[in-house]
Amino acid sequence: MDGRNHTAVTYFILIGLSEYPQAQIIFFCLLLLSYLVTLLGNVLILFLIHYDSRLHTPMYFFLSNLSFLDICYTSASVPQMIINCLVRIPIISFGQCLTQMCAGLYLGVVECLLLAVMAYDRCIAIGDPLRYSVRMSPQLCIQLSVGSWVSAFLLTVIPTLTTPLEFCGQHVINHFSCELLAVIKIACNDLRYNEYFMMASSFLTLLAPFVFILASYGRILRAVLKMNSTKGRKKAFSTCSSHLTVVIIFYGTAISMYMMPQDKASRDRDKIISMLYGVVTPMLNPLIYSLRNKDVKGALQKLCGEKTVS
């Protein structure tokens, strides 16, 4: 990201809501509250999965990955955003901005791949329940998990660091954080090249996993419709409802952000959408999985019951 034959940029100014001081105070309270809920909710999910042996299954192994990911995802940018709400002119160094941009992009793609892996897990559990424990062995679960983290690194961090961005002395970013699209808009590079690169990358990291999820749920729906028992159908749908809700929220906002043509103009729409998949979704994930999942609620009741007895 170092511009040749241009004025070197050593820092960036993040506008965010600095032009609206009253709104910035409200935004600070909402951000702080959402971050605390995200941390507490996801840490609780991780603890319950580790604590209750009934949750030692492939489904909850991947859920623990997702909870850990959400903690990292929000921690990569939200604390900086909270601090910026208390500063009149939010400034972030060039190195911090680069790190934040790569971390956010990397962790976002890991979530895309993990959600696809979780859809595959549900597809095997419902479509082939008798061989589920054999097909989704602990070794395969670890391989799928590690593969998601490694593949995301190869698809995002390496291409981002090897794609030069040149800045003509402009250092004002109209965003809350160093979002990739916001940084690209102030670069001197020909935007068409960046659009082609992002469209190709988005196809591999967003559209392809999303199509795979849709195909998996197509097979799940076909398997459920073949069930004779109404109770069995309800149970099958209940195990998928939480995951499907997260998929709709995350992919809906991410695709609308990265699969649409971009221009140099900064838009408030981008800020709102980035808040949805970067702040709101990680906060909702533990709530969705705990409120709509009988096993997680049972583990929480068991934990509270043992604490009450002791």
Range of strand content: under 5%
DSSP helical segment count: 11
| CATH class division | Mainly Alpha
Q: Percent range for helical residues?
A: over 70%
The number of domains is: 1
Please identify the structural class as seen in this structure: mainly alpha
How are the strands of the largest sheet arranged? 2-1-3
Q: Based on DSSP secondary structure assignment, what is the total number of beta strands?
A: 3
CATH architecture: Up-down Bundle
Q: Largest sheet at a glance?
A: 3 strands, mixed
Q: How would you describe this protein?
A:
With 310 residues, the protein is mostly helical. It has one domain (11-304): Up-down Bundle (Rhopdopsin 7-helix transmembrane proteins). The chain is built from eleven helices and three strands; from the N terminus they run βαααβαααβααααα. The protein has a three-stranded mixed β-sheet. α1 (21-51) runs antiparallel to α2 and α4 (94-127) runs antiparallel to α9. The radius of gyration is 21 Å and the shape is globular. It starts with 10 loop residues before the first strand and ends with a helix. The model is unreliable at 1-6 (pLDDT under 50). Keywords: Cell membrane, G-protein coupled receptor, Membrane, Olfaction, Receptor, Sensory transduction, Transducer, Transmembrane, Transmembrane helix.
